[in-house]
Write a structure and sequence with these properties.
alpha/beta; 6-stranded mixed β-sheet; 14 strands
Length: 374
């Protein structure tokens, strides 16, 4: 039985077409700031130039790059993924790395804690051991689910800081990203998980983008850009620089007011989610606004929101969220880019949380303004 109380359950999207776009604008009351529709690639020579990075911009500390042949620790800080850890190990080793399966990733608790991959103490021990081992080159989450937040007040952030390395995951793992940003201060990677994405066959550039990011192929000045068939939507045009923060919207809201809540000052905020009905997304946004979490935001990146509970596909349904987002942000005069392919969707691009970046909505991309690995 876990030593701490059980988690309570936690609960994606282009515009449907011209009519939906007009309807969204009317609901948002922002005809003067009309979304420009699906971003259309333009001749780079004709684009307005992106300004250089701010000279005093300070992001999180870069982590050591993942080297070829390194050992990769497979962890499950949240939910179990039955029989997936060994398949994940084979996948990792087929790419030239050495897989180390941490024990809790092979387990599942009995009811009522069956949503957890091992006790809190075991999952915590796996994380500490994976970070403390100098032979481990990256700590990679098997999947999300529920329960990462249960570990936050018991993590040894000093140990993590002394042995910083690429930490990869998303969804419920957002709780760990936020806490590490707050208390350890190194770059972490909101990226595809082994069971949830890579064994499931998420399409390119899901995998190649991750490798490029954690191996150091993408350095300062590199652009993170989606593929041509997953182009984002420019909701409010503009360019802004700041620390990239965020992740799963429900987890961000759940941790607001705690010692692990998100720091959005001078930040580019990224949000995504799954299985959240549109009224609940509205409530989550309103909660964060009431908590003052949008006051210091320099730009907004809206990722995949999937399974919104409406009878249309995710690409169409995402447009239904834009009036809610514009209602909260239209008076803030910040650039907003929607339908960004990171999170619960396909593909799932890796984002370096804590890093200094520039958001350019006309380009439909993010520029790295600092090294994320060294």
């Amino acid at each position: 039985m876990p030593p701490f109380p059980a988690d309570s359950g936690r609960r994606g999207f282009l515009k449907q077409g011209g009519a939906l776009c007009l309807s969204a604008l009317a609901l948002a009351g922002c005809a003067g700031r009309a979304p420009s529709g699906r971003h259309t690639p333009t001749n780079p020579a004709l684009q307005r130039p992106t300004p250089p990075p701010p000279p005093n911009g300070k992001g999180a500390t870069p982590v050591p790059a993942l080297r070829p042949g390194a050992r990769v620790a497979i962890v499950a800080p949240a939910s179990a993924a039955t029989n997936a850890s060994d398949d994940a190990a084979e996948w990792v080793e087929a790419r030239g790395f050495v897989a180390q399966v941490m024990p809790a990733s092979r387990t599942r608790l009995d009811p009522p804690y069956e949503y957890l991959a091992g006790s809190d103490a075991d999952r915590l021990a796996d994380l500490h051991a994976a970070f403390a081992d100098p032979g481990v080159g990256a700590v990679w989450c098997l999947q999300g689910g529920f329960g990462s937040w249960r570990l936050l007040n018991h993590l040894d952030y000093g140990l993590l800081r002394r042995h910083a390395k690429p930490f990869i995951g998303y969804s419920d793992i957002t709780a760990l990203h936020l806490a590490i940003q707050r208390h350890a201060g190194f770059v972490t990677f909101h990226g595809p998980m082994l069971a949830q994405d890579l064994l499931a066959g998420k399409r390119e550039p899901t995998e190649s983008n991750l490798w490029a990011m954690v191996s150091g192929q993408m350095g300062p000045g590199s652009w993170i850009a989606p593929p041509q068939d997953a182009l984002p939507t420019e909701l409010v045009p503009g360019v802004a620089s700041g620390r990239l923060v965020g992740g799963n919207l429900a987890l961000i809201a759940a941790l607001t007011g705690t010692r692990n809540d998100i720091d959005t000052r001078d930040a580019i905020l990224f949000i995504e989610d799954v299985n959240e009905a549109i009224p609940r997304v509205d409530r989550l946004l309103a909660q964060l606004a009431a908590a003052g979490k949008f006051e210091g935001v320099k730009g907004l990146l809206v990722g995949n929101f999937t399974r919104l509970g409406v009878r249309m596909d995710d690409d169409q349904a995402q447009g239904l969220l834009y009036p809610l987002i514009l209602e909260q942000f239209r008076a803030r005069n910040i650039p907003i880019l929607g339908a960004w392919p990171s999170g619960h969707g396909d593909p799932n691009l890796t984002l370096p949380l804590g890093a200094q970046v520039t958001l350019d909505t006309a380009r439909g991309a993010l520029r790295l303004d600092q090294a994320v690995v060294v």
